Amino acid sequence: MRWAGWAFLIIVVIFLAWLIGTSLNNQAEETYTIGSIQALTSDMASIANRVRQGIDLAVEDLNAQPGARIRVLHEDGKCNPPTAIAAYQKLVSVDNIHALIGPMCSSAAMAVAPIAEQDRTVMMATVSSAPGLKHSGEYIFRNRVSGGPHGVQMAEYAYDTLGMRKAAILYINQDNGVGYRDAFTKRFEELGGKVLTAQPYDKGEADYRTPVLKAQQSKPEVLYVGGQQSEMVVKQVREMEWDVPILGTLGFEVPEMLTVAGKHAEGVLYTNPAFDPESADPVVATFQAKYEAKYGEKAAAFDALAYDGAMLVGKALRACKGESDCMKNYLYKVKDYPGVSGVTTFDEYGEVAKPLVIKTVRNGEFVLYEP
Fold first, then answer.
1. Selecting from 3.40.50.450, 3.40.50.620, 3.40.50.2300, 3.30.70.1400, what CATH number does the domain 148-273+358-368 have?
2. Which of the ends of the chain has fewer CB neighbours closer than 10 A, N or C?
3. What secondary structure does DSSP assign to 289-300, as a single string?
4. Which CATH architecture describes the domain 29-145+278-355?
5. How far apart are the C-alpha atoms of 353 and 359, rounded to whole Å?
6. Three-class SS state of 21
7. pLDDT band at 287, cuts 50/70/90?
8. pTM of this structure
């Protein structure tokens, strides 16, 4: 009888050990997939590559920690709504993603967001600035400040600090450009200034002299440029020997501003997230050291925003085991997260409020503006 009892006990112990081991193995082998849609072969490819690098570094850091494995699959949305929709549908139906980062461009993000919302796919935008994304649904989040606050802050700077009273606007004829235009105009005129003209320009054109000339003919004291391809606008403004002060947005801080606009970019002013690549803050310094070691260059704002967005999505995936409603609720509860791009708190719309700074181009480098 005694031996029978011991035998039973041994069997129970072996079974429990097997059960625990199986559970741990399953947990260790569990993998969650993040889909990423970036504009890898568009006129914004240089930014897209930085965004991809930020995401990849975040996934690498996540997988260096205990927990389920995270993988990311990148698709090329080409800054084109139909292409981005097709990329999203492939990621969902073929790759079975648990969450999405992107799409990168505002027009593509605005096209995919309603579909992701209907599918209950958590979507984290890290580049798109279109103000309308704010109202795209409860599964849609954005880890960067939208175009609205950029336009407001630059309007206030133009009026209060620079003393300008007459402005002209050149903006890309897309959702993000319209957002910059509307925000700047509203705030500038609330303060007592006057926007004399707002001229759109189309993506992909090589010659912007017609809208530039129309803006010039309105005789403004300052020119506000909203949206991508601003390096071409800056270049042609100066080539037309127009020495008006030029103000802009986050889209100014791209390599093309230094290579395409070149010397013509000297002195432009633009709003940018308050990300300091030289910061001594341990969170930023550690990120910067890893980024430089991996990619051989310093990270900029787009890279930092992408890194934080991917880290938050990865943490939500692990905490919720990929369940979308749980992930959504997890992200809405994020308060004062110490990210490399700044402290992150999501509001009831899935939006963030982060400080912006004024930067400039000085001696061929992007630097904090100091009057």
1. 3.40.50.2300
2. N
3. HHHHHHHSS---
4. 3-Layer(aba) Sandwich (3.40)
5. 19
6. helix
7. very high
8. 0.84
